[in-house]
Amino acid sequence: MKFLIYVKTKDGKEYYAEDFLLTEKDIVLYDAVDRKGNPVGTITIKEGEWQSFYAKTKPFLKGEK
């Protein structure tokens, strides 16, 4: 199953889940910000969810530091 995730980072770059070769066992964490750049905490995306938001940092896979 593909994760349907779209993220636009503060520097304007766009990411899609497919770019990270996710599997149904992966969970993606984002350090998210609102449109003004204020932190809103870490967002966890799970299988089958669609999310669109701004991210402060590049997404990383579960298990990565």
What does this structure look like?
- This protein has 65 residues and is mainly beta.
- The chain has one domain.
- It contains no helices and six strands.
- It has strands at residues 4-9, 14-16, 28-33, 39-45, 50-55, 60-61.
- Strands 1, 2, 3, 4, 5 and 6 form a six-stranded mixed β-sheet that branches.
- Strand 3 (28-33) and strand 4 (39-45) form a beta hairpin.
- Residues 18-24 have low confidence and may be disordered.
Please state the CA-atom Rg, rounded to the nearest Å: 11 Å
Characterize the largest beta sheet: strand count, sense, and whether it forms a barrel: 6 strands, mixed
The overall average pLDDT, rounded, is 55
Which stretches of 5+ consecutive residues score pLDDT under 50? 18-24
Structural class: mainly beta
In one word, what is the shape? flat
Task: Give the helix level as a range of percent.
Answer: under 10%
What is the H/E order?
A: EEEEEE
Our estimate of the beta-strand percent is over 45%
Secondary structure tally, helices: 0
N-C termini distance: 25 Å
* Number of structural domains: 1
Tally of DSSP β-strands: 6
